[in-house]
Amino acid sequence: MLDVGCGQARHTSEICHWDCRAVGVDISFDDLAVGRYLISYRRWAHEIIGDADFLMAAAERLPFPDGTFDKIVCTEVLEHIPEDKGALSEMIRVLKPGGLIAVSVPAYIPEKVFWTLSWDYWHSPGGHIRYYRPGEMLAALRESGLDIYAERRRHTIQTLFWLLRCAVGKRNENSRLLVYLTKVISLYYWRRLRLLEYLEALTNPFMGKDLVFYGRKPASPGEGA
Questions:
Q1: Who contacts 174 (Cβ-Cβ below 8 Å, separation ≥6)?
Q2: Which of 9, 5, 164 is nearest to 76 (CA)?
Q3: Phi then psi for 152, rounded to 5 degrees?
Q4: Is residue 25 part of a domain?
Q5: Is residue 26 part of a domain?
Q6: How far, in Å, CA of 37 to CA of 31, rounded?
Q7: Which residues of 18-52 are buried (b: 16+ CB within 10 A; e: fewer)?
Q8: Distance (Å, rounded) from C-alpha 204 to C-alpha 51?
Q9: CATH code: domain of residue 174
Q10: What DSSP state is assigned to residue 220?
């Protein structure tokens, strides 16, 4: 499995709960170093059974032969890079025929609100350079030849976090309310608090920050799907 724009390997680490070999690619050397450490530590602690390799590379120029991977994830990456369509083409190129892909981008309404509230939100180095209007990413995925079989919204808690951060000022990281919310989110992600999971599931369809698409690359002629 390939994790495109893996950052510090949060998703790669979750993938390794299964007995698999994952590959994480990112343009940040420092983030990849953190990711390597995280995977090594979690394997040492017997928290995961899979393993991962990491490679410094751009999503627009993936250094793999055609049809290398059976599964690909790309979470919150395309909105950061100028050549988003090129990155999408590269992912489809290295995906095997019949392989599965999951792509997430910010949902339109929350993202539009953040851009309106905070100039810093979309002018910070490495930040978002675009947002996708309703139906835009779905159309791009289908035009690229993918069969999209599911779509859902996720991460209401992140909507609340960024709404507060934009409201108090993106650079005002010492806001007491923001610090408290950050602690709650960290606890939620590591302990998976049941009540918060239930509340987030209820509100995700209309408040989720991320829009996730699940697709399949059509099989080659003569192959099964």
A1: none
A2: 5
A3: -155, 160
A4: no
A5: no
A6: 10
A7: eeeebbbbbeeeebbeebbebbeebbeeeebebeb
A8: 31
A9: 3.40.50.150
A10: P
Do residues 164 and 178 lie in contact, with contact meaning Cβ atoms separated by under 8 Å?
Answer: yes
CA distance 202 to 198: 6
| CB neighbours of residue 165 within 10 Å | 23
pLDDT value of residue 208 = 95
Give the 3-state secondary structure of residue 62: coil
The DSSP element (H or E) to which 76 belongs, if any, is none
Cα separation, 2 vs 25, in Å, equals 8
| Burial of 6 (C-beta count, 10 Å sphere; 0-12/13-18/19+) | buried
Residue 24 domain-assigned (yes or no): no
135-149 pLDDT tens trace: 999 999 999 999 999
The total of structural domains in the chain comes to 1
Strands (E) located in 9-140:
21-26, 51-56, 69-75, 95-106
Structural domain harbouring 90:
58-216
What is the percent of the chain where pLDDT is above 70? 98
Q: What is the pLDDT of residues 98-135, one digit of tens each?
A: 999 999 999 999 999 999 999 888 888 888 999 999 99
Whether 88 and 78 have beta carbons less than 8 Å apart is answered as yes
Tell whether pTM > 0.70.
Answer: yes
In a domain, 37, yes or no: no
Give kind and range of the element (H or E) at residue 152: strand 147-154
Of residues 14 and 194, more confidence is placed in: 14
Residue 47 CB partners (closer than 8 Å, separation 6+): none
